[in-house]
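Dear colleagues,

As part of the handover before I leave the project, I'm documenting each prediction I ran so the next person doesn't have to rerun anything. This entry is a single chain, and its sequence is reproduced below.
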Amino acid sequence: MVSLSRSLFDQAINLFYERHGKVDWVLKEAPITGYTYLQSTHHLTTHKQDEQQEIQGLQHEAGEEEWISEHHDDPAEASTPMAPPLLMTIDYHIVFSPSYQVPVLYFDAFFTDGRRLSLDEIYTHVVPHMYQEEMQRSPIQAQGAITQADHPVVGRPFWYIHPCDTQTLLRTLQPCTIDVYIQTWLSLVAPVVQCPTRLDWFIDTPSIPSVHSSG
């Protein structure tokens, strides 16, 4: 299994940041411990799925032709009306886990009024539909693969993707060299919570010797 020491993690995130991360990520250092981590903030727009599903359900019950007939005077109403958009800010952090010896993706998500998303809202608005069932069915924890805990560096509650399967996933992609470790790992976990990734991360990357594997 591919694992990292803290010094290798620091090397990996510095390599990633210097070569690819300056566009979207900020390299930070904890003031007391000196631990380094990466932080990136993005804005997402979504719709209230429950309201949208209710509208679509009414349209289905009435029948497509009847719905269009009732709204024929206004072409804009002939199509399914969209629920008001929801604006969210998601703050992503890449942090080292000394227990699992891998990076962990922590994130904080909140609406424009400052209210933080609940776990149900995370699955409704942040986790794409294709991942929801698998993430909620995690055998590790009753609440699924996404859970909440105090951030190991900033010290307040964050959501995070549990790292129990990270080494297993990375093992399928060996050899995993230190220069592509972070982007390879991100390509596996980032889509689950809409953390942006870039194709150019994997183009013309100089090779550095492989990370030592254990287990």
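The chain has a mean pLDDT of 81. Strands lie at 26-29, 36-47, 85-97, 102-111, 146-150, 157-161.

All the best with the project,
I.
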